[in-house]
Amino acid sequence: MTTDHSQPPHIDTGRAHPARVYDWLLGGKDNYPVDEAVGETLPPEARDAARQNRAFMNRAVAHLAARGIDQFLDIGTGIPTEPNLHQIVQRTVPTARVVYADNDPIVLRHAEALLVSSPEGATDYIQADVREPDEIVRHARGILDFDRPIALSLIALMHFVPDDQDAHGIVRGLVETLPSGSHLVLSHAAIDLFPELAEQVIAQYAKGGIRLGFRTRAEVARFFDGLDLVPPGLVTATEWSGDGVRPPAPEESGIYAGVARIP
To answer: Quick one: a GO biological-process term for this protein (predicted)?
Structure first.
């Protein structure tokens, strides 16, 4: 389903949604009591993880924009939180084109904030689920040139796709649609860095009806199979910093993060 502002989106306020829980963790106001109820049960480190994820995205896309990447496909966008991805990359490349995708109707309600592009560039939004990759790519082809490099951004998304839903296959399929010189930007919750905290988070999300598939470093590394990891490789979110990007302050993190080039 493509963006349609003529009809108000139906929002299920009786069931928690990852995008709205994430918004709550970031201190946003576009969430409902059911989302807050999940967030309140999470350990304080969950707020840190949301912040760290967001900061990693900022650094990673700034790094790529500085190297001339001017097309971005961001899946699992979440509720707009400034600076949004297009604002970051268009500071460096005003002509950059960005396609956002998310499966929460509340993101559609706020899509106008995602569509305020620089005059030279373009942004677009589709309400779709990463489990429907063909639909996302079909829509993105109307905005992005798939004959030129594209950065695929999957920030704190794939741990919401358990193994029985073929998370690795989904990412592999998306990567295979991209030309040489494209990049994969991915962050993912770890099961093996702070196991007790991770299990607590998984249990609390499950009570809210949200399944999680946290993974080990080796399992996260599989998302990058066949790709060329950009230094410093697959590290925690607070350890990743690209060339020319101000590194973050040292801080523990339960999130793996990496950027890789498609050869």
So the answer is: methylation
